[in-house]
Write a structure and sequence with these properties.
Distance between the termini: 63 Å
Strand content: 5-15%
Mean pLDDT: 94
Order of helices and strands: EEHEEEEHHHHHEEHHHHHHHHH
Largest sheet: 6 strands, antiparallel
Number of strands: 8
Number of helices: 15
Helix content: 40-55%
Strand order of the largest sheet: 1-2-6-5-4-3
Length: 301
Amino acid sequence: MATPAGVRIDPAGGRASLPVRPPYDLQRTLRCGQAFGWEVDGTGATGLISGRIVRVQQTSDAIIVEGLSEEPGLRNLRRYLGLDEPLADIERALAEDRVLRRVLPQSSGTALMRQDPWECLVSFITSAFNNIPKIELSLKHLARWFGTHVAGGIWTFPAPEQLAAARLWDLRRCALGYRAPYVREAARLVASGKVDLDKLDRTETGEARRILLALPGVGEKVADCMLLFAYGRGDAFPVDVWVKRAVERWYFRGRPKTEHQIREFAQRRFGSLAGYAQQHLFLSARTDARLSPRSSRRLRR
DNA sequence: ATTCAGGTGCGAG
DNA sequence: CTCGCACCTGAA
């Protein structure tokens, strides 16, 4: 297959340059909470993709890649990072909505990624009733104790087989708490082939959702995260506590709604862009002091 | 010491 | 089917 236009490759240096269009924002995309595996700093980010340690950083019109300089790895990275998402069109459409128009400036450029379904599954099982630092801690421990060593201080995310064989007691050492049996059982279902995560890529969304919901530790929210972050189903709308607060506050004048009602509302209102709407509402809610639990408790009185 | 955190599973009405 | 409740555990 031909190299896409605009791509510059320097095989000897292990470097490449992938073109991107505004408003794509690498930092926002990696920090927005959809992916956990990347070490993001002021200038770029480091992570593992296609079994390689890769550093990426954004310039005015490109993503500079170090550590990966050949296809199909680069194509894989493009897809993973959502570099080809038509963000300008998407955000223009979302800005028709009065709420999104207001919050978009602070989250513009966030692209939906295409993560590995298995890693995504474990990440979001772990995320349930948990906080972000501890989720990251658990995932880091999982890689350290069950993954494969790549190079100094870097381990791959463990394969289903690697976790399926784990002792519960060892899994618990990863601070997974009561989620440990969920993770191991999910690993066994995937490793045994009883659940084929790759096949879901070609499965109709509703059916894929039903299959995901049958996995232990996977409820509506986690299933929707997987549909959105791993399977590219743009109409998925994961309803977590932040999105729930934001939608109730900004679309229903603070009237409480069930998660089901919120999901239905979002799909009707945003359709195939519901996933992007969710990202922007989520990011906005997290940075809006008025939506913090402390604040809303005060207002409730 | 208490409280909180990106939900889910389970039993009851 | 909807509702309420318990829940591992590190960090503030």
